[in-house]
Amino acid sequence: MNEIIADVLVIGGGMAAGWAAISAAKTGARVVIADKGFMGTSGVTAPAGPNHWWVPPEPGLRKAAVERRLESTFGLADPVWMERIIDITWQSIPEIAPWYPFSGDGKNGTFRSGLRGPEYLRALRQYATKLGVIILDQHPVLELLARQDGSIGGAAGYDRLNDRPWNARTGAVILATGGCAFRSGLLGSYNNTGDGYLMGVEAGAELSGMEFCVSYSISPAWLSTRTLPYTGARYFNAEGQLLSIPGWDKPREYLCKLADAFRTGPVYADLHEAPVGLPAVIREIQPATVAAFERRGLDMFQDRFEVKLFGEGTIRGIGGLRIIDDVCATAVPGLFAAGDAATREHIAGATSGGGAQNAAWALSSGVLSGTGAAREAKKRRKALNQSEKLNPLGGPGLRPSDTIKTVDNKAAIQTAQNEILDLDKALWRNETKLSSSASLLDAAWSEIRNNLQGRNLDAVSARETAAMVATARWCNASALVRKESRGMHVREDYSQQSPEYQSHIITGGLDKITSYLEKPRVAEVVS
């Protein structure tokens, strides 16, 4: 058993994790990052070209940016949070200049809002290393560890490289594990299985906004890529007839029309009418997209090609762990959340923030959580080297409640995919569909909770399966409680937006899920 002692443990290896580690280390804290894969290559940022919410520090410009964003949040965002996120983003990105080759803006200046994913994450890794952060690659975390008072004092996992368990005794933990795409095939999302949600709820944290998970990206049918090229796309059916698909400025109509088209057969994209400068931009900031076509001998801007929709779940959705203050703390002492692991409702409301807001949130929530976790850890530094017993909190996949039996992981994951990502169930929700999904997901969960146990490396996949099914149940439960249509959550049986629901849906629990409207707080057990 390898034991690690640190002030702050950051779980994850993407953009939010990198900024969280940097922020904590800048305070003088001893920081460790533990990532499932290799920090810098795992997660959805690595193959992307993230564009940040980049607004100069001029009051008029920032006020206008916030007001524009508020118009699309359906009453669930906070302008104070928005202003904070914009400012932190503006201040932070220039810090990576020693490690990142910024491009020119064509006006004798520097272009900083849009970054190349692979180089961005490499820069964050180098910056963190320079500050003394210890990076543990291939060290998936399996569960959190709690002190006797219930606060979080560390985590336990498995070291893939040395084939041995490990644990960390820390002053605070930041969950920056990303969202959950339910293994949809979305580029870079294979490791994003909702692990942080599961660990957080096991510790006693709650989730918020999980009903806002209806998000999809269009890509070539054979492989998920990035979506920027499709801003000027036209779509055709198998007979070559032009389909009437609205533009991206109408996301709901865009998705619904595409979903209808897929019901009747394959759909093909044509990028002949893409903006003239787009090919050069794509090659510059999203090279993985270009490579997917070149390997097939296709010119994406000249050849017509088949497309499909890849579910993004909570990655470009909104929901995540509920945070209770301005340094991204959860309700559990010692536990913080950042990036897609945390709810993004503060700046996105009921609609996805798109690349700009989402990237700014990942960066800024990382910075804030790092500051908060370091502050919390400082209070506990004297006790770190003591031998207080830490209690393991992991259940499903590690400690079944009944007899250990073989569980079909693939079938359980397929159930989660079917009930959350299926276009008909996601885009046209109603009580009957959601209740049916709840029954199927509860059955899958019951089998996992009662019978699934993984040991050593097998425990990683067991926990991933448990996390995906748990996340699906939370998403579905939240959608049942929000009896209205708001933003990306649309109910056929409640087609109008209701003032009664202009608040957050808070969800928690494992075997018995409880979901309630935050204001007024009226509990409603839904499964």
Q: What's the structural blueprint in terms of helices and strands?
A:
Blueprint: E1 2-11, H1 15-25, E2 31-34, H2 59-70, H3 79-92, E3 103-104, E4 110-111, H4 117-130, E5 134-136, E6 141-146, E7 152-159, E8 164-175, H5 195-203, E9 207-208, E10 216-220, E11 234-237, H6 251-264, E12 267-270, H7 278-285, H8 287-294, E13 305-311, E14 320-321, E15 335-337, H9 345-348, H10 354-380, E16 391-392, H11 409-421, H12 423-427, H13 431-451, H14 458-481, E17 505-508, E18 514-517, E19 522-525
Parallel strand pairs: 1-2, 1-8, 2-5, 8-15
Antiparallel strand pairs: 3-4, 6-7, 6-16, 7-8, 9-14, 9-17, 10-13, 11-12, 12-13, 17-18, 18-19
Helix pairs in contact: 1-4, 1-10, 2-3, 3-10, 5-14, 7-8, 11-13, 11-14, 13-14
Describe this structure in words.
The chain is built from 14 helices and 19 strands. Strands 1, 2, 5, 6, 7, 8, 15 and 16 form an eight-stranded mixed β-sheet that branches. A five-stranded antiparallel β-sheet has the order 14-9-17-18-19, with helices on one face. A four-stranded antiparallel β-sheet has the order 10-13-12-11, with helices on one face. Helix 2 crosses helix 3 and helix 11 runs antiparallel to helix 13. It has helices at about 15-25, 60-70, 80-90, 115-130, 195-205, 250-265, 280-285, 285-295, 345-350, 355-380, 410-420, 425, 430-450, 460-480; strands spanning about 1-10, 30-35, 105, 110, 135, 140-145, 150-160, 165-175, 205-210, 215-220, 235, 265-270, 305-310, 320, 335, 390, 505-510, 515, 520-525. It has about 525 residues and is of the alpha+beta class.
